[in-house]
Specification:
The complex is a heterodimer of chains A (about 350) and B (about 280).
Chain A: H1 3-7, E1 12-21, E2 24-34, E3 39-43, H2 50-58, E4 65-70, E5 73-74, E6 85-88, H3 100-111, H4 117-127, H5 143-156, E7 161-165, H6 173-190, E8 193-198, H7 201-207, E9 210-215, E10 218-223, H8 225-230, H9 235-240, E11 245-252, E12 255-258, E13 261-264, E14 272-278, E15 283-287, E16 296-304, E17 308-315, E18 318-325, H10 326-329, E19 337-342, E20 348-351
Parallel strand pairs in A: 3-8, 3-9, 6-7, 7-8
Antiparallel strand pairs in A: 1-2, 1-4, 4-5, 9-10, 11-12, 11-14, 12-13, 14-20, 15-19, 16-17, 16-19, 17-18
Helix pairs in contact in A: 3-4, 3-5, 4-5
Chain B: H1 2-39, H2 50-56, H3 63-98, H4 104-116, H5 119-137, H6 146-166, H7 170-179, H8 184-195, H9 197-213, H10 216-220, H11 226-236, H12 238-272
Helix pairs in contact in B: 1-12, 2-12, 3-6, 3-9, 3-11, 4-6, 6-9, 7-8, 9-12, 11-12
InterPro entries (chain A): AAA+_ATPase, ABC_SmlMolc_Importer, ABC_transporter-like_ATP-bd, ABC_transporter-like_CS, Mo/tungstate-bd_C_term_dom, P-loop_NTPase, Transp-assoc_OB_typ2
EC number (chain A): 7.6.2.9
GO molecular function (chain A): ABC-type quaternary ammonium compound transporting activity; ATP binding; ATP hydrolysis activity
Chain lengths: ~350, ~280
């Protein structure tokens, strides 16, 4: 692929972006830096502003204040058609009156891509594994194939930044996983700076170099997927990423007392009466009768999930969900008495509301 | 059970045939009658082709000149009306859908309004406007009636384009084109127009049909178009007028078929120019 060097390595800086729709602040002093060649995923619930941020970067949405800098150039006032970016939409967005090749060729024509356009079209179709589908029309392709064409089209124009707006949301589960991995492979192969917007946390954690979690127009936390997952800085992030048990506890500096056990706390945790957020995989269960009341539990439901199992256990004042290996969970049945053991893994404590 | 299904299918087929037959009779009977009238002398029943021959014979009465003028004016006005109506309405409807969706009801109301106003009433309003146009802005040429015809065809063009625009994802297509560097003109001409081609073609058809068949405006504003010239000829020779009417109908049909073929041909040619190539590793 000759386009690697042509398109890779453009940094992006979004600075203090604000966008207000009526009474809703879709972007509220939003800032984000994307390093050249990096794939950043913006994750958050519906209405958190992630798509507005992406559209602001693309130029399809105006911002009320703030600046957008791409490759050292301030593009805030530039219209969408002069920003040298390419976008893949959720709804495929292929031109229905053009063939697969025509779609890519048209995009190259608009962007005035230099070189043999036919070769570029063919190369990019090969890249997404659709080399034999060039003369088909969009309606003759499956959803997954259409989205691959949209991706090939976006890559063919050698944009400074690739923008992916929930590109996998309309696909079925199997195709979604397949294409998700393919997007990551191609992005790394081409080395293009990419902003990926999704509401699917698994998708974000798997494809991104860094994940940004948004809420109410603000970037709550950004970091490597493992950091976001294991070291959330707010209750919202801990709650939104993965599954979390919310257990009442008493914090004393760097540790808290929960279910009669001591759990180390992450920096930034609250003190006093707190709610400690503990991941299901950081809880183990041991079949036992007659253990101390504050760590005793009774199995309510067991759920087999293939590679692992989730067990819901009734504990004093509520319940916890534990994630166990298939072997560990096989001996447990609803009604069994168990001892709930919290692993020595740092957790976040937030003030009890 | 199978017998019941077979009877139901047979009944439905019979119903379809009857409906098609009735519709065919409804549309074709006046045309056959018109053709018959053009070749049969009303008093004696004698059949001859004099009325048709009169169309190609040397004419010293001036009626063919009148017809030519009327036909020319109507064709020019049909083209002007098509260009103006679609040229104004399509970008407007796109703009309203993309940027001003709250205005869509108002635009729809305005576009459909001419349907509720009788042509005679419209002419009463338009007469003073055309008096100014004729004397102060342009001249008394018939072709300026095209401006009034744009109003007349608005409801039909709106409905047709509306159906076309509803059938595509206008927002995503235009945003995709913009994100790849396309101007708004590119969005309109290269993306939206090809995707609402059938809606535009049907809007063209109905506009041409309305303009070629329009009589009230031209007659009351004392202009010469196809219908007013046919009316004049009819006053002197009804059979020639019938022959001319049939001829015009045939020409109009040919025109519309040709238009459809030309538009379709352009699309197929573009698709053919993008044959795939093989990549060598």
């Amino acid at each position: 692929m000759t386009q690697t060097s042509a398109s890779a390595g453009r940094g992006v800086q979004l600075r203090n972006l604000t966008r207000v729709f009526g009474s809703v602040r879709a972007l509220d002093d939003f800032s984000l830096d994307i390093a050249p060649g990096e794939l950043v995923a913006l994750l958050g619930p519906s209405g958190c502003g992630k798509t507005t941020a992406l559209r602001a970067l693309s130029g399809l949405e105006d911002v009320d204040s703030g600046s957008i800098v791409v490759d050292g150039e301030d593009v805030t006032a530039k219209p969408a058609n002069r920003r040298d970016m390419a976008m893949v939409f959720q709804s495929y967005s292929l031109f229905p009156h053009m063939t697969v090749a025509g779609n890519i060729d048209f995009a190259c024509e608009l962007r005035k891509v230099a070189g043999d356009r036919r070769k570029i079209v063919a190369e990019n179709l090969e890249l997404v594994g659709l080399g034999t589908q060039a003369d088909r029309y969009p309606h003759q392709l499956s959803g997954g194939q259409q989205q691959r064409v949209a991706l090939a089209r976006a890559l063919a124009v050698r944009p400074k930044v690739l923008l992916l707006d929930e590109p996998l949301s309309a696909l079925d589960a199997k195709v979604r996983v397949q294409l998700r991995d393919e997007i990551r492979r191609i992005q790394q192969e081409v080395g293009i700076t990419t902003l990926f917007v999704t509401h699917d946390q698994e998708e974000a954690l798997v494809v991104a170099d860094r994940v940004g979690v948004m809420s109410s127009g603000k970037l709550m936390q950004i970091g490597a997927p493992a950091d976001i997952y294991s070291r959330p800085v707010t209750g919202f992030v801990a709650d939104f990423i993965g599954q979390t048990n919310k257990l009442p506890g008493r914090s004393a500096g760097s540790s808290a007392s929960v279910l009669g056990q001591t759990v180390p706390l992450l920096p930034g945790s609250a003190s006093g009466d707190v709610t400690v957020l503990i991941r299901p995989e950081n809880i183990t269960l041991r079949p036992a009768a007659g253990v101390a009341a504050d760590r005793a539990g009774r199995v309510q439901i067991t759920g087999f999930l293939g590679s692992h199992a989730k067990v819901r256990v009734e504990v004093p004042g509520g319940f916890v969900v534990a994630q166990l290996g298939v072997g560990e969970s096989s001996g447990l049945a609803p009604g069994d008495e168990v001892e709930v053991i919290l692993k020595d893994v740092p957790a976040l404590a937030v003030a009890t509301s | 059970m199978a017998g019941v299904n077979a009877r139901a299918k047979s009944g439905a087929k019979t119903f379809r045939v009857v409906v098609i037959a009735l519709a065919s009779v409804y549309f074709l009977l006046p045309l056959v009658s018109l053709a018959d009238f053009s070749v049969r002398f009303p008093l004696t029943g004698k059949v001859d082709a004099n009325a048709w021959l009169a169309l190609i014979a040397p004419d010293d009465s001036g009626r063919l000149d009148l017809l030519r003028e009327g036909l020319f004016n109507s064709l020019v006005m049909a083209v002007m009306t098509v260009v103006l109506a679609i040229g104004i309405l399509l970008p407007t409807m796109m703009l309203v859908r993309l940027r001003l969706p709250k205005l869509s009801r108002i635009v729809e109301f305005i576009c459909l309004l001419p349907l509720t106003i009788p042509a005679v009433v419209l002419v009463v309003g338009l007469a003073p406007i055309y008096a100014v146009i004729s004397t102060k802005i342009l001249d008394a040429n018939t072709i300026w009636l095209a401006f009034a015809y744009v109003i007349l065809v608005l409801p039909f063009v709106y409905r047709s384009l509306d159906a076309g625009l509803r059938s595509i994802d206008l927002k995503t297509l235009s945003e995709t084109t913009r994100s790849f560097g396309g101007s708004w003109w590119t969005v309109l001409w290269r993306v939206i127009v090809p995707n609402v081609r059938s809606a535009i073609v049907s809007a063209c058809f109905i506009t041409i049909a309305v303009v070629l068949g329009e009589f009230t405006f031209a007659r009351m504003l004392a202009r010469t178009n196809l219908q007013t010239s046919l009316f004049q000829i009819n006053l002197s020779d009804g059979q020639v007028a019938a022959a001319v009417s049939l001829l015009c109908l045939g020409l109009t049909t040919l025109l519309l078929v040709a238009l459809d073929l030309i538009v379709g041909l352009g699309e197929r040619r573009r698709a053919r120019t993008l044959a795939p190539v093989t990549v060598e590793d």
